[in-house]
Each structure stands twice: as C-alpha cells, then as structure tokens.
Amino acid sequence: MQNIFLYDTTLRDGAQQDRISFSLNDKIAIARRLDKLGIHYIEGGWPGSNPKDSDFFREVAKIRLRKARISAFGSTRRADKKANRDANFKAMLKAETPVVTIFGKSWILHVEDVLRTTAAENLRMIEDSIFYLKSRGREVIYDAEHFFDGYEDNKEYAIQTILVAAEAGADWIVLCDTNGGILPGAILNAVTTVRKKIGVPLGIHTHNDIGMAIANSVVAVEAGCTQVQGTINGYGERCGNADLTAVIPNIILKLGFRCIPKEKLKHLSEVSRYIGEIANVIPDDYQPFVGNSAFAHKGGMHVDAVRKNPRSFEHINPELVGNRRRVLVSELSGKGSVLHRAEELGLDPDKRETHRILKMLKKLEGQGYLFEAADASFELLMKKATGKYKRLFNLESFRVIIEKREGDGLVSEATIKLRIRGRQEHTTAEGSGPVNALDNALRKALEKFYPGLSEMHLSDFKVRILDPEEGTKAKTRVFIESRDRTHTWGTVGVSENIIEASWQALVESIEYKLLKDSK
After folding, report:
1. CATH architecture of the domain covering 393-449
2. Closest CA to 131 of 79, 83, 98, 81
3. Span 417-435, pLDDT tens digits
4. Which H helix or E strand runs over 119?
5. Which residues does the UniProt record annotate as the domain Pyruvate carboxyltransferase (predicted)?
6. Which end of the chain, N or C, is more open, meaning fewer C-beta atoms within 10 Å of its C-beta?
C-alpha cells in the first residue's frame, strides 16, 4: 500500500487569502492541531519576509511535536548573489527548521520577464541553492513553481529545471500548478512523463482558480506523486489551494493509500471547524466531506432510501470523517423524514401523530416558516405534537420602547411580565436594539430560576423579508442561532411585525436550552 505524505501550508499560503490574518498564537495553535491530526510537514512561513514568521519558528521549536516536521519557506538565491551571501538564505537557516522548502522558476516566461535573467543563470540558481542547503544538513523540498504552465510552453526547459534540482540533491521535487489553470488530463500526462525521468520522490501543489485543485491533486497521486501540498479548507490566494479536508479522505477512502492514521480521520471535520474559527472565516456548509450539508437529505424519497440503506445516497459513512447525517424537514418532506428525526430525538410518534406533524409542518412552511436551519424549532414542534412538550414559563405581556436621547443614539427598553413556577416576574432591561432589550429582560427574569442560561448566547441573527412587494406590511422571517458550551441550535419566527417574529425565535431558543438542560 502506497504511503502519501501531507504537506500543509495553511500558515503561509493559506494566510495569503483575502481577510485572513493569523497572530503568532494562532499559528502555534494551528500547528499543534495539524500535528495531532497526523500531518507530516507543516510550512510555518517565510522567515525572511516578516518578524511574525521568524517569531513562529523560534516558538514552535520549543514544542515537542508528535509527527510533523516544520519547514521554513523561501526562494532560490538571487541572480546576482551567491547562496551563502543571500539574506533570505541566512534567515531560512536561522529558523533552524529540519526542512527548508524553496521555490524556483520552471517557466521561461517567468525567468525572462519576472526574474529578468537568462535560462542558464536560472538553472545555476536552482543548483546552487539546493546544494548549499543540503550542505547545511537540511531536508530540501524543491517547489517547481509554474511547472505545468512551463511544461506546456517549453517542455524541455521545464524538465531541465527539475533535473538540475534532482542532481543538486533535492529530497523532494514538487510540481506546482501555481496559476491554478491546468486541467486534470494535462496533470496526469505531465506527472507520468516526469516520473520516467526523475528518481527523486515527486509532490503536487495545486491552486483552485478553475475549480480543479482537489481533482488535480488526486490525479497526481494516482500518477505517482507521493507528497501532496495544500491547506485546511482550501484557504489561499485568489481562489485558494487544494483543500486537504477533501484530499485526505479521497486518498484514504477512495484510493486506498496510507496517509494520516485512519483513526485520525474521524477528527477531520473538527479540525476544519477549529481552523475556520481561528481564521474567522464562516464555514462552507457545502464543503465536501466536512461541510454541515455534506450528508444532509431533504427530499422525501431520498430520506426514505437512506433510512433503509444509507449507501443508497451516501458515498461514505459520515462518521468516518467526523461528520453526521442530517435529515432536513421541509414542505418536501415525507413520513420518512419525520420518523428519522423523531428517532434521533428519542420520540416514537404513531401514525396519527406523524400525520399531524407533517400537516403542521406544511402549513407553517406555507406561512413562511423554514425549519431546515431551525432544528430546535422543529424539535419543539414535534414534542408539542406528541405531548412531550413541557412549558417552563408563560408570557403575560411585553412592551418595547425605543427612545432617542439628546447626544446619544437610539436606546431600547423592554418590560416583560412572565409567570414562572406560579410566580409573576416583572422585569425591565435596556439594550442596543429592541431584540437585545427583550433578550436582556427575558434573561433577567429567568436566570434566577434557570442559572444555566448564563452560559448561552445568541451567535447569529438573520432577517428575511418574504414578500417585499407588500412594503412595510411585508411578512418577516427571523432566524436566530444560539450556542452554549457544547451545542449550537437554530430557531425561527415569522410575522408581519419584526418584533413579534424576533420574539418567537428568541423564546424558542431559550425554551430549547432549558429543555435540553432538564434532560
């Protein structure tokens, strides 16, 4: 069974994505998590480019990593410098990493138009750089930048650049689709040809500018590359790099090759979310393997088939990559969707209750409710229909006042009267808006009875106008996402009055939390 080595460049190439910026602590945390996952190489950055990357190499050296080898990144020497006098090489060696990755030019266009040097001098730059780093005891990975564009433009010269790299002692030669514009067939042909000419192990580095980065990486592995470079969640410049959260399971589960330990694969979805949270990037629900909707089923026929045999509409068991099956309930749902969701909740509705739930669901969705992202609202609906719902407080009244004060912005004040365990609670609270004021007043009344509410917070609030042609009379749908220490859940409210719609979603978010804690 073939061993495939993973090279993660999230900390360098991934950080070049628009709106991503990692702090030093972020980089250390990510490196620890990648090592725990079983990644073989972690590229820490370009030590000669900025102080933060230099600090990273100093700090990461203090950590005892289980598996990963840290790599510093840089380029071949300058055309007018010797390697031992090049400032970038001094910085790379000062990082004291066991591995150094350098890139060089494979495309004659870059040699002449970007470096403004000759084809012969570029070959000497590659040779001198690798030979010097090897003489200093480093494992050297040579990234053949723009290799596939160079191969299409001048096949002989592109191959000559990597032959020189191999003869100079490179431990790996990585073929790069730096512009991200090459199709899988061209990748397959080029890698197959290169393998016959080069004895050094090959790697692949692809970008996603035409949506082929994952496919090109997998094809390259099939053709004989034994190192894959990429980033978690496909972060990277322009359209990003090859997404390792898809490449890894494809290598292990589809090709049958060794990569990370198979038992580590179940942590892949968690790693995707963890690094996404650090990067402050909203997760892509439709991301293959690890996305929240990767194993979501909505159509009634699909759900019925999955209940009978999951393989009918799932290419793998979601748990293999740490994900889960989701059955979405909507007006398209059939009895199978409801029964599946009921089983997950530990409910056992009879035929009459199931029919009642479906009828309620379709009626509410006809009014504008949408339960696909409002899992908590649907669970409450099912419990009400099956008699398993227990109301923990009752609203007697609420009032919201919005006031404009001299010299200040708008201030909202909410007054609520609730009946809790037979007692009336009358509370008032201010907030930055009417919904925030209602939330504050509601919590103020409830937390003395249910202290667990203190660990819950609203993490997202979305408003959708359902019939804009109605103008200010338009019906409004409000989604609220809430979180505590262990769970995330969604609720929905619909009304022609945005405050009423918000109140519905807000109350259900709190009711769900209280019912969950009471189990």
Report:
1. 2-Layer Sandwich (3.30)
2. 83
3. 999 988 999 999 998 889 9
4. helix 119-135
5. 4-269
6. C
